[in-house]
Structure formats: C-alpha cells, structure tokens
Write a structure and sequence with these properties.
Bound molecules: 5,10-Methenyltetrahydrofolate, magnesium ion
Subunit structure: Homodimer.
Radius of gyration: 19 Å
GO molecular function, one term: methenyltetrahydrofolate cyclohydrolase activity
Distance between the termini: 53 Å
Number of strands: 11
Shape: globular
Strand order of the largest sheet: 1-11-8-7-5-6
Number of domains: 2
Oligomer: single chain
Keywords: Amino-acid biosynthesis, Histidine biosynthesis, Hydrolase, Methionine biosynthesis, Multifunctional enzyme, NADP, One-carbon metabolism, Oxidoreductase, Purine biosynthesis
Protein name: Bifunctional protein FolD
Largest sheet: 6 strands, parallel
Organism: Desmospora activa DSM 45169
C-alpha cells in the first residue's frame, strides 16, 4: 500500500460546506425563514471565548442569524434554565448551543436536558443520543459528523475497515463509534483504562484520537498506511495549539492525517451550521 501522508484539509472542506449552506440559507430566507442560532456562554474561559467567536463568525458568513448570550461566571443553574426556556420559545431561534464546560455550580446534564430536542443542534440531548443509537433520524453531534464528512470527501472507504476510536466521551468517542459502525466499519473502542493501547491502535485502518492529551499518539501507535483523525485540542509545551497525535512523527507512516489546527475543528463548526439550517428547514416545511 502507498503511504503518502496526505493532509486532510478540514479547513478547506469546511469552507466548501459553508458555501453550500449559504445557498440553502438564501432559499430558506426567500421562504420567510432565516435560520437562527443562539450560543450561550457562561463565564470567561478564554478557549471557550475563542471557539464561540468562531461559531458566530461562521454564522455571519453563511447568513445564519446568531445571538450570543454571555452570562457571568456566577450565574445560577436556575437562571440559565430560565434563559434556555426563553430560547426554546423563541421562534427566531432554530438552534441552541450552550458552550461546555459550564461553571461547577451548574449541572451540564440538567442544562442539556432542558434544551428543546428539536433545537439541540449539538446533538447532545438524550433524545438525540437515543435516536442516533437506535438508527432514527437525529441531529448528529457536530464533531463526529464532521469526521465522517472528511472521510467521505477524501474518498476513504469504511466498509469492512477496522476503525479504532480512542476516547469514550458522549460528545466524540461514543457517537463517532456509532457512525463508523453505521458505515459498516468494524469498530474497537479504547479509552484511558485500555491496557496495551498500541496493540489495538496498530490494528487500525482508521484511527480516531479523541483523548485530550498532547502527543498521546506517536509513531509506535499506528499501522503503515492508516488514516489518522486527530480530535485533540491541546496546548504544546511551547503554548501552541496541538492535537493528540504527534503529527510530525506519524504523518510519514500514514496514508491520510488531519492537522490541528485546520482539521476537525473547522468541520465541527460547519456541521453546527448544517444542523441549524436543517432545523430551520424543518420549521419551514411545517409552515
Ligand atoms: N456545546 C458545545 N458544543 C461544542 O461543539 C463545543 C463545546 N460545547 N465546547 C468546546 C468544544 C470545542 N469545540 C471546538 C470547535 C471548533 C474548534 C476550531 O475551530 N478550532 C480551530 C482552531 C481555533 C483556535 O485557533 O483556537 C482549528 O482546529 O483549526 C475548536 C474547538 C467545540 N466544542
Ligand atoms: Mg477517555
């Protein structure tokens, strides 16, 4: 097999998808429905502020109406739930995203459960998770959906392939495993307590690293010619944004790899807009 170390350009693919969504949005606006996204940010976390800015910027580019709701760090759970209820009722809002993590006094589970499942464009609500698990139509969680889109647009076949997912979060590891399985991959789920991790990852045709630890995946973890998807968002010791994969060491061995930045992150935001437009489309078809 030829190993080319081809970089999967998530940034470029996300720009293409935003262009497609811009057209869809224009059609919806002509039908009298402008898609609207509310982004709720509690507190001052600087990484969260960066990510939220990226989301608002993408909305503007696509023509999606956006509302940024910034609440102080000491906001009570009750106050946040009341704000979510207003957004649930608000007809100009088709998608609600509450940026995670939340301050300690607020239960993320209760907050996610309070979002109208039809406006849950993150796909985090238990109803959406259950729909995905059982194969019903669902808002797909944005990062897993973005990963599948990148694989497809890169022409990477999944059927019968061995996909190994490292990480078992509700946001990435679990749903991406389901989506890969749905595409007829054979999926192995690994996590922080997996023994002899490299004995699994070295079997992977497709390796998804979603651990959240800088340089967790090195050359010794990959099979030659594998496809490597890096979901990590870490800081290097020098303070640079970096993934879970030691990119320089791994790239020469593999057929495809996603960079950080410029890989999974921009696709996550594109899929958030996709879900928001889908939600508005649903409303438009009802009126
Ligand atoms: N309710 C909720 N939904 C989320 O989807 C959500 C969340 N909470 N909390 C935090 C994580 C993280 N996340 C990112 C999305 C895009 C980039 C992204 O675009 N990153 C750029 C770089 C950005 C930079 O320069 O820092 C890139 O990878 O190229 C990063 C991180 C969404 N999350
Ligand atoms: Mg884990």
């Amino acid at each position: 097999m030829v190993s080319r170390g081809e970089i999967i350009d998530g940034k470029g693919m996300a720009a293409e998808i935003r262009l497609e969504l811009k057209e869809k949005t224009e059609t919806l606006v002509q039908q009298g429905v402008r898609p609207g996204l509310a982004v709720v940010l509690v507190g001052e976390d600087s990484a969260s502020q960066t990510y939220v800015r990226g989301k608002i910027k993408a909305c503007n580019e696509v023509g999606v109406y956006s509302e940024l709701i910034q609440l102080p760090e000491d906001t009570s759970e009750k106050a946040l739930l009341a704000r979510i209820d207003q957004l649930n009722q608000d007809q100009s809002i088709h998608g609600i995203l509450v940026q995670l993590p939340l301050p300690a006094q607020i239960s993320p589970d209760r907050v996610i459960a309070a979002i109208d499942p039809e406006k849950d464009v993150d796909g985090f609500h238990p109803i959406q998770a259950g729909r995905l698990l059982t194969g019903l139509d669902a808002y797909l969680p944005c990062t897993p959906h973005g990963i599948l889109r990148m694989l497809k647009r890169s022409g990477i076949a999944l059927e019968g392939k061995h996909a190994v997912v490292v990480g078992r979060s509700n946001i990435v590891g679990k749903p991406v495993s389901l989506l890969l399985q749905r595409e007829n991959a054979t999926v192995t789920m690994c996590h922080s307590r997996t023994r002899e991790l490299s004995s699994y990852t070295r079997q992977a045709d497709i390796l998804v690293a979603a651990v959240g630890r800088y340089h967790m995946i090195g050359a010794e973890h990959v099979k030659e010619g594998a496809v490597v998807i890096d979901v990590g968002m870490n800081r290097s010791p020098e303070g640079k944004l970096a993934g879970d994969v030691d990119f320089e060491a791994v790239r020469p061995l593999v057929s495809h790899i996603t960079p950080v930045p410029g890989g999974v992150g921009p696709m996550t935001i594109a899929m958030l807009l996709y879900n928001t437009v889908q939600s508005a489309q649903r409303v438009a078809s009802l009126t």
